[in-house]
């Protein structure tokens, strides 16, 4: 089992972290998703019914 490890200074204060690569990549993906959400927060929203109508019109549903 791989666990998160910390690097500490002479006083025992945590200064860095070592993560499994898979965990690191998941964090990067989460940050990317949150960035997109933040960029789109002021865009108008549509109802579920309107979304279904558009998908049907495009032949996707």
Question: Can you describe this structure?
Answer:
InterPro entries: RelB-like. This is Antitoxin. Pfam families: RelB-like (PF18506). With 61 residues, the protein is of the alpha+beta class. It has one domain (5-57). Helix content is 49%, strand content 15%. It has 2 helices and 2 strands, in the order E-E-H-H. It has helices at 21-40, 48-57; strands at 5-8, 14-18. A two-stranded antiparallel sheet has the order 1-2. The protein is elongated and about 65 Å long. The N and C termini lie far apart (43 Å). 0% of the residues are buried. The mean pLDDT is 95.
Key terms:
about 60 residues, alpha+beta, two-stranded antiparallel ribbon, 2 helices, about 50% helix, elongated, RelB-like
Radius of gyration: 21 Å
Question: What's the mean pLDDT score?
Answer: 95
Class computed from helices, strands and strand pairing: alpha+beta
Helix content: 40-55%
Q: Going across the major beta sheet, what is the strand order? A: 1-2
What is the straight-line distance between the termini?
43 Å
Q: Helix segment count? A: 2
CA-based shape: elongated
Number of domains: 1
Report the count of strand segments.
2
> Strand portion, in percent?
5-15%
The low-confidence parts are none
Main sheet: strands, sense, barrel: 2 strands, antiparallel
Q: Could you spell the SSE succession in H and E letters?
A: EEHH
């Amino acid at each position: 089992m791989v666990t998160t490890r910390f690097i500490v200074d002479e006083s025992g204060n945590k200064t860095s972290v070592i993560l499994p690569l898979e965990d690191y990549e998941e964090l990067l993906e989460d940050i990317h998703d949150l960035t997109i959400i933040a960029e789109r927060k002021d865009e108008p929203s549509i109802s579920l019914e309107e979304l279904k109508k558009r998908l049907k019109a495009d032949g996707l549903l």
